[in-house]
Amino acid sequence: MTPQVNRRDFLKQSSAAALSMALFPSMKRKVAPSDKVRVAHIGINGMGTNHLNWFAKLPEVDVVGLCDLDQTHLDKALATLKGIHPDTTAKTYNDFRYLLDRNDIDAITCATPDHWHAQVAIMAFQAGKDVYGEKPLSYSVREGQKMLKALNRYDRIFQLGTQIHAGDNYHRVVEIIQSGAIGKVHTVRLWKTGFPPVLGPANYQTPPATLNWDMWQGPAPVSLYTPERCHFTYRYFLDYSGGIFQDFWCHIADVVWWSINPTGLKRITAKGEAPEGIGDAPKWIDIDYEFDGLKLHWTSTPPNVAGAEKRGIGAYFEGEKGTLLCDYNTREITINGVVMNDVAEVPITLQRSPGHQQNFIDSVKSRKQPESNLAYARQMTMPMHLGLISYRLGQSLEWNPRKEKFRHNSEANAMLSRPYRKGWNLI
């Protein structure tokens, strides 16, 4: 058990450690080549570029492979890597299956569009590789189940890319809530503001010669190429993702599942509005979830509580003794009408993260699952999928958490998975 530490002492120790690193760079760990974790990156534009920069700069990592379906992304990523490590010998690939065939790769990161997450991860597990995968965990509920089964079968390590999880603020929120300072939590309100861009009209055209559009679609339904359906704006099409809601759910729901671990989901009721343009992920979506002893509400506008209007994303915990409002980096606790940003009496009980990516590398070496492990991430992600199904059907749905099925609704149960396009079920 991690020893309890007074918060003031903890901050002093943390500051001293950070200062030592800044003043004495030689204290940074030097790693022999034989002790390095060999990492390859799959999907290397956007967030994938962040993956490359993060891992390439870790002393214990050797980036040995890069893969993307767009040659322009691949060329840019290789130039980025050479800027960090001019002597790199990393190989490049346009098909991740060839990369997974290599026996000299220990782990991969995956920042593909959502509809590829599960197959890439499962095939990596089968190939004996650990996975750092971008959120959301998977495209569907059934894919998440298959991922967990494969991870356990092949004894692999997985970290979900919820980078905010590593920050001190979420750790402290969890400590305060679990201490009982605001009492038993009975209601949680989550929100993320913002509308998707209006896309279209569709500009159907021949795919660029640098892009393998057929493989980019992969298991998703086939479509003619239009730039709006590809790369960053893919997330506004339900064939591939779930819009702003799916993009941000995991980042803010994470602090809820970590602190109170909602269980016994009974009912999901969603409403929303379709967007203008050719995208079809919701313009806005509001969802009410009923768990055992807990009501959880997601909205696309801030709830009517003090301080929420100043935050574009947030979580508001209502307990029997008080409330706690937080976003990624800030928090406000209200007890007996007194507003504070900390509760001094609550000790430090959680070990702080060495960094989200470092936590993954440490886990690859120790063979102990990291903070945002797959079993945890699957439970935290599942309500997101269920909310989108309720929205798409326009129905309130009853859920059986033990069987992970909807009650008395075959149409909703059919949406827990999706048939893969012919030729693209690779697992």
From TrEMBL:
Residues 37-161 form the Gfo/Idh/MocA-like oxidoreductase N-terminal domain. Keywords: Oxidoreductase. GO terms for molecular function: nucleotide binding; oxidoreductase activity. InterPro entries: Gfo/Idh/MocA-like_OxRdtase_N (IPR000683), Gfo/Idh/MocA_oxidrdct_glycsds (IPR050463), Gfo/Idh/MocA_OxRdtase_bact_C (IPR043906), NAD(P)-bd_dom_sf (IPR036291), TAT_signal (IPR006311), TAT_signal_bac_arc (IPR019546). Residues 204-425 form the Gfo/Idh/MocA-like oxidoreductase bacterial type C-terminal domain. SUPFAM superfamilies: Glyceraldehyde-3-phosphate dehydrogenase-like, C-terminal domain, NAD(P)-binding Rossmann-fold domains. The keyword Signal does not apply. PROSITE patterns: TAT (PS51318). PANTHER family: BCDNA.GH03377. This is Gfo/Idh/MocA family oxidoreductase.
